[in-house]
Every structure is written in C-alpha cells, then in structure tokens.
Amino acid sequence: MPQSLAGLAASPAVGISVWVLAALVLAAFVAGWVDSVVGGGGLIQLPALVIALPADASTPEILGTNKLSSVAGTLVATLTYLRTIRVPVGMVLPLVVAAFAGSAAGSSVARFIPKDLLTPVVLVAVVAVGAYTYLKPTLGRVHEERHSGWSRAWRSGLIGVVIGFYDGVLGPGTGSFFVIAIVAFLGFGFLQGTVAAKLANLTTNLASILVFGIHGEVLWVLGGCMAIANLAGGFIGAKMAMRHGNEFIRTVFLVVIGVLAIKLAWDTVAQWTG
To answer: Which DSSP state fits 39?
Structure first.
C-alpha cells in the first residue's frame, strides 16, 4: 500500500499517495486563483478530487472536501475585495440568505447523485455560460445597475436560491454562474459582480460544509491541506483582478470556460466509451 493519508481521512478506505496529495494541493492553488478572479475554481478542483481519490470515495465525501478547500480561498478573496469595493446591502442580503437556504437543500440531496452524472451535467452548463458571455462582448464591462428596491431584492433572492441549490448538489462552476447571473440580470460590472458572487459563494460553501460535516462526509485533513493552497491562490487572484478590472476578468472568464469545456467534453466521451 502506498504512503497514504488513510488514517487521517473521514473514511478509513480513503488513502492517497504523497505525490497525489501534492498534485491536489497544486490544483487547489490554481482553483483558488481562478475562483477569486471569475469563479468556477471548482471546475478544476472537483475533477481533480474525482480523479485522485480512490473509487470507493463517496460523492458526498468528494463534494464536502471540495467545499472545505474552496471556502478558504473564497473567504480571503472576499475580504480582499471588500477592502476597496462596495456592493449594495439591499442586493447582497437576499442573495446570501437565499443562497444559504438553496445550498443547504442541495447538499441534502447530493448524497443521492451518482458520481457518473457530475461531468456531463457541468459540461452543458459551462458551454451555455461560455457561449452567452462570448456572444455579448459588452456584457459586464460597465457597471450599470438596472433594478432597485423590491425588484432587485427578489431577483437577487432568485439567483441565490437557484444557484445555491446547484452548488449544494454539484458545485463546480458556481462562482462563474453567480457572476454571470448578477452581471446579466442585475446590470453589474464584472468586477462588482465578482465581489457579490464571492459573498454568495462563501455562504453556499459554509452551508454545504455544515451539512456534509454533520454527516461525517468531509475529509478534514486532506481538505485542510488543500485549503491553505486555495487561500494563497485566492489572495493573489483577487489582487490581480482589482488591478486590471472588468476586461481582464471577462478575458480570464472566457479562457477558463473554454479550457474546462474541452476537458469536461473529453472526460464525458471517455466515461461513455470506457
């Protein structure tokens, strides 16, 4: 048996080599950077966990560990953004409350989702978001809020509960989906939308960790190691995003979506033909 973390995992059957751990830590760093800039770091980190962990690791264990790692990078990115960028409380409050409720509900359902369904479902969502963003070149370049008061509040709540539920059930791409929904439906610029998305994503991650943790479905030591790397990537990414602004975020968004769509398509074909 290779040198492993089996004794440190929530399940004694889950063991990985030191080299695999190093690869997961690197994936977590890159995911933290991507997540802080445009969201969607889970599209790097979650497939890495699916590939790296043994076949007997359950879907909730994979999702719970992914959330534990992600929450560190999301937290540091959120705090970094909020030092210089403000978003309306009247928009953020219904967004995060609904996101928490949706994520908790989704996480309760996640244990019934077979791992084989993760990749093709996320692939469809990624392609749709990428195509929409590419076909609207002016989207998110200027911050022009289109709603206020109750009109903005219920739209924010709807975004929160729908994407929050998705985050609880599956997770990858949640940050990107929050960003594009806030930009497209509320008129935020990419930079301001990213800040609001970080707050919502932080809330959904905490809700999922709570649900998965109660059921003993988080690999705490592995997730903790990845969380440190994710935190470092999140801090660096947030600094770069604030320095370069909306156009930089949009460009990174499209590149990340394109690369991940190709990767997920390859994985889906391999899964169906394997």
So the answer is: S
Picking from 70, 77, 72, 79, the residue whose alpha carbon sits closest to that of residue 46 is 70
Is residue 1 in some structural domain? no
Which residues fall within 8 angstroms of residue 4, CB to CB, at 6 or more apart?
15, 16, 17
Examine residue 132 and state whether it is found in any structural domain, yes or no.
yes
Burial (CB count within 10 angstroms: exposed 0-12, middle 13-18, buried 19+), residue 254: middle
What percent of the chain shows pLDDT beyond 70? 88
Q: What integer pLDDT is reported at residue 139 of this predicted model? A: 63
- Segment of 72-76, 137-141, 189-193, 248-252 carrying the highest mean pLDDT: 72-76
Cα–Cα dist 43/70, whole Å: 11
For residue 271, the surrounding DSSP H or E stretch is: helix 220-273
pTM value is: 0.74
| DSSP 8-state assignment for residue 117 | G
Residue 118 predicted with pLDDT over 70: no
The predicted-structure confidence for 153-205, as pLDDT tens digits, reads as follows 999 999 999 999 988 887 767 777 898 899 889 988 888 888 999 899 899 88
HSE value, Cβ hemisphere, 13 Å, CA-based, for 117: 9
Q: Is 40 domain-assigned?
A: yes
Total structural domains within the chain: 1
Instruction: Quote the domain boundaries for residue 44.
Output: 12-273
CB atoms within 10 A of CB 239: 15
Residue 247, in any domain of the structure = yes
Contacts of 186 (CB under 8 A, 6+ apart): 91, 145, 146, 147, 152, 155, 156, 159, 193
